[in-house]
Structures are given as C-alpha cells and as structure tokens.
Amino acid sequence: MPTTFDESVVLLDVREHDEWARGHAPGARHIPMGEVPARLAEIPRDATLYVMCQAGGRSQRVAQYLAAQGYSPINVSGGMLAWAAAGRPVVTDDGRPGPV
C-alpha cells in the first residue's frame, strides 16, 4: 500500500470522529462507518480504494457494503494498529504526530 495518496488512490478511514481526532494516516479521507451510505458520492468509484478502521473489523463490513454498491474496495487488514506498528506516520488534524 502506498504511503501517499492522490485522486487515484483513496485511503478511507471509517473510524468514529474521536478515533480520527486522536490520530490518522496522513492524506486519508474520513467518513465514519455509519455515515458511509449517505456519503457514497464522496467516494470516487475509479480510485484504488483502501478501507481502514482501528483493527480491520468495521472496515471489512464497509468494504463488503461498498463492493455491493459497485466499488472494488481493499480492506486494510489490521487497520490503524497495523499501520502504526509498521512504522507508518500517524498525525492529528493539525499535522502533529498522534497516537492510534
């Protein structure tokens, strides 16, 4: 998985607002799991789509939902815990390092 994202690659973080605020992957897009159905238009259909949560359970359910809607999502197994454990950056909204 890339560590930077542009229009061709989307890392969709489906964790809750408080989890996102503590720390997230730089460049990720945040749509909490419960808001995904109402915000589908914000998710580009032609992008390579990675879906992430804290450990991989919620993102797996969202990935299954997105697949049923015609997307080709990739669930990030292990979620933000695996992201951070791999030494990838975790930041807050103001760009400072943050915890998972």
Automatic annotation (TrEMBL):
InterPro entries: GlpE_sulfurtransferase, Rhodanese-like_dom, Rhodanese-like_dom_sf. Pfam families: Rhodanese (PF00581). Gene3D superfamilies: Rhodanese-like domain. SUPFAM superfamilies: Rhodanese/Cell cycle control phosphatase. This is Rhodanese-like domain protein.
